[in-house]
Amino acid sequence: MKICAACCNELPQSNFSKKQWKLKQYERRCTDCINAKRELQLKPPPRTIKEEDKPTCYICLGDGPDESGGEVVRNCSCRGSAGFVHPSCAVKYAEQKYDNRKQGDEDPWRICPNCHQDYIDELALHLAKMFVSFIEKNHPHNHTLILRAQVTRLESLTTKIHNRSYTQTKEAEQVANSILHKVGQMNLRQIQITYQDRIYEAYAYEILGCMIVEEGVNERVKRKLPNALRYFEKSLEVSTANNFDHGIMRAKGLIRMVNSKLSGQVNDDSLKSHKLMYEQRLKWSGESHNDTIKSGMHYAKELKCNHFGVKAERLFIELYGISARYHGLDHEVTKDVSSKRAHYMVRVVSVSSNEAGRFQSTRALSTQDYYNDNAVFYQLRQYNDESFERCVVKGPLLYSGGPISNNEISLSSDEVIFALGTPVTCHGLERVDIIGQLGDVRSWNSESKCYTIHWEDESIDPCEVHQSNVRVPNCVCDQCMGKGDPFGECPLNMK
Fold it and tell me: Is residue 273 part of a domain?
């Protein structure tokens, strides 16, 4: 017997069709009510308002703190309700799994068993620290395993954490030097040094150099770049002596990068090195690995600095899509890609109008100009209408210290000069082959008022285009450049 929601009578199965019999009570009608076209009378039961489910540790199934007061955390790429774990439970799981692993199994101290992606941030730091203690206690005479644990700790402090603090930077330097000291002690005591030990040694030198380079390019840091160069040269020396191809390639690329920074000149070799390192990381680790995405961001930044604006922005769009797909929108790597993409796609302009006052200029800024700590520039905000004859700029802005002025000024489009590397399209030309094509600005001639543009379609030769025929899209993604509006708001809403 079941109740019909139209006549509200309790009836046997024979009074219902097979389809209606299977429906929920407030959806079910008997055959007579269907024939009579009677409306449903019963309402769905009110939804019970439950307390929002608390995150639950997937190991102990507890939703409160552990015995030491540690709350459940999720520092991986799991989504929904998955991946939450007490740090202490993650340690116990890793201790049980590590020594019983088979060849090819994932490292439980580094990789989440659910999403199969690296742990990051605080959980990565905690697990790496406990991994060192675990190895020192259980394998005190296995020098390679001790070095491996220290390298995991070093990775957690340098490549697995965002917004590294000064204390953590100093700790990373200490761990890197500890690795080098241990290898040195092994050499003095004539303890056999394996090929893997030498890889760890080369990596420690590389990280010490990278931490100097990551500080930026101001004058204080520039004086420390020779030290970074020496670390990279030592990494190259160790890698070469042991035929470590990956290390050789990375060290050579980093050396070229530092030499470029020391000379203050755009260096094609540095750009090629970043491209090669990204391609190799893709090959070795796959597109979804955190380190691959970070390597891609370094390559995109180098593209931008070399004024390949279109390629840089397209790479950021690609990296964002990969990170969002594999790690989710709330993952720190995805947020980092989104933030950097928004940063590098700012449409920087110089203003030749008297409106600019003391910041008036007739020169096209280079990337090095407007990413300098004391650089002053304007930002193109929008065009006033479809004629593109007038535009709105914001500023002047100061790169490092925030805005000098948030004023928005309406100007003739002929009074702004786009920065080198700015993505552009062209209109109103006799050359049909370049109308609507996407390219980037490589040089500016103030006398002829012309830009030299290199096209995304490399079959089209670079050419000069007059200032009045050049337009700047807000976004170069396929949606905007195809069916969307490249001069409006990006439908991906990635900013």
Answer: no
* 401: containing domain: 344-481
Specify if 38 maps to a domain.
Answer: yes
Q: Which two tokens stand for residue 172?
A: 């990373």
Residue 113 lies in a domain: no
Categorize the per-residue pLDDT at 494 as very low, low, confident or very high, splitting at 50, 70 and 90: very low
Condensed to tens digits (0 to 9), the pLDDT of residues 197-245 reads 999 999 999 999 998 887 765 556 678 889 999 999 999 999 999 999 8
Q: Using the CB atoms, write b or e for 406-429: b if 16+ within 10 Å.
A: eeebebebebbbbbbbbbbbbeee
Please count the structural domains in the chain: 2
Six-digit token pair at 287?
């597109």
What confidence category does residue 262 fall into, taking pLDDT thresholds of 50, 70 and 90?
confident
Q: What is the average per-residue pLDDT within 429-451? A: 88
pLDDT score of 442: 93
Cβ contact 252:236 at 8 Å: yes
Helices 143-158 and 195-213 cross at an angle (nearest 10°) of 20
The H-or-E segment that residue 425 falls in is strand 423-426
Judged against a pLDDT cut of 80, whether residue 124 lies above it is answered with yes
CATH of the domain at 426: 2.30.30.30
Q: Quick check: is 396 in a domain?
A: yes
Provide the token pair at 136.
Answer: 């020192």
Structure confidence at residue 495 (pLDDT)? 43
H-helix segments, 61-194 = 87-98, 121-138, 143-158, 166-188
- CB–CB of 68/130 below 8 Å? no
Write out the H or E segment, with its range, that includes residue 396: strand 390-398
Q: Please answer whether residues 416 and 391 qualify as being in contact, where contact means their C-beta atoms are separated by less than 8 angstroms.
A: yes
Can you say whether the dihedral through the CA atoms of 481, 483, 485, 491 is positive or negative? negative
- Predicted local distance difference test score (pLDDT) of residue 51: 46
CB 32, CB 7: distance < 8 Å: yes
Tell whether the model's pLDDT for residue 401 goes beyond 50. yes
Beta-carbon-side half-sphere exposure of residue 330 (alpha carbons within 13 Å): 7
Q: CA 418, 419, 425, 429: dihedral to nearest 10 degrees?
A: 50
